[in-house]
Amino acid sequence: MQFAVIGLGRFGAKLATSIFERGGEVMAIDIDPEAVDEVKDHVSQAVLCDCTNEKAMRELGVQDLDVAIVAVGDNIETSIMVTAILKRLGVHRILSRSLSKMQGQILTEVGAHEIFSLEEQMGEQIADRLISPHIIESIKLSSGHSLIEIEPPAAFLGKSLKELSLRATYGVNVIAIKSKKPGINEKGENIVKVVLNDLPSPDEKITTNDILVLVGRDEKIRLISDLDTKED
User: Fold this and answer.
1) What are the strands of the beta sheet with 114-116, ordered from one edge?
2) Dihedral sign from CA coordinates of 129, 132, 134, 136
3) How many other C-beta atoms lie within 10 A of the C-beta of residue 206?
4) Average pLDDT, the chain
5) Domain 134-225 falls in which CATH fold?
6) Angle at 141 (CA atoms; ends 136, 143), nearest 5 degrees
7) Which among 2, 119, 127, 189 could bridge 25 via Cys, Cβ 3.0 to 4.6 Å?
8) What whole-number distance in Å separates Cα of residue 19 and Cα of residue 13?
9) Using CA atoms, how far apart are residues 144 and 71, in angstroms rounded to an integer?
10) Exposure pattern of 39-75 as b/e (b: 16+ CB <10 Å)?
11) Roughly how many angstroms between the first and final C-alpha of the chain, as a whole number?
12) Rounded to an integer, what distance in angstroms lies between the CA atom of residue 158 and that of residue 109?
């Protein structure tokens, strides 16, 4: 996938380089020459540009990329203006950083598809989510280790945990399986319930309604997240 990261402060620079390290194609943009120079060797393309200049942004071809992330947060006016420009350019997916609930509401109104908060999500975590959208949740346990909830790759479907032998093959452990089951609530309405199996049997077969809860080293988990999911 192709990404634009606009605003190369500490957070934006970390986000841009993290996405690139995970295999994303990254155009990093900032008006500060020093900020651009800092990341130029760690992204696909580092560009010096006034991101509030719609013509300049169009000439860069930002509108042709898959995702644009507005990492400008401290300057509210700039973040709003850039988000609005990206919307006018027709960018498919726009993520904008917000420092407050009010700012987030405004950013949504002018065109952001998703809002994120620096205080809640660090650059590496957002990079993981962008590169591997089938990862539903990711929690850093310690240095180099994570717990994730992930949709099963297509190659896992119909196979038992014993057949998959994830610990031996990928070096990760399955600690639980969440399954979506149809049900009826107290009003008689059809609902989907999530049932947690925290002691899955080796004979448990993986289905399209399952979510795997895995724990392991980040590089091992990435091997699984890179596999084609059932949606591909």
Assistant:
1) 45-48, 25-30, 2-6, 67-70, 93-97, 114-116
2) negative
3) 23
4) 86
5) Alpha-Beta Plaits (3.30.70)
6) 120
7) 2
8) 10
9) 25
10) beeebeebbebebbebeebeebebbebebbbbbbbee
11) 14
12) 43
| Tokens linked to 227 | 């596999």
Domain ranges of the chain: 2-130, 134-225
* pLDDT tens digits, one per residue of 78-133: 999 999 999 999 999 999 988 888 888 999 999 999 888 764 445 666 666 665 55
Cβ neighbours of residue 13 under 8 Å, at least 6 residues apart? 28, 35, 38, 39
φ, ψ (nearest 5 deg) of residue 100:
-155, 165
pTM of the model: 0.60
Alpha helices per DSSP H over the chain: 10-21, 33-39, 54-60, 76-89, 101-110, 123-131, 161-164, 166-170, 218-225
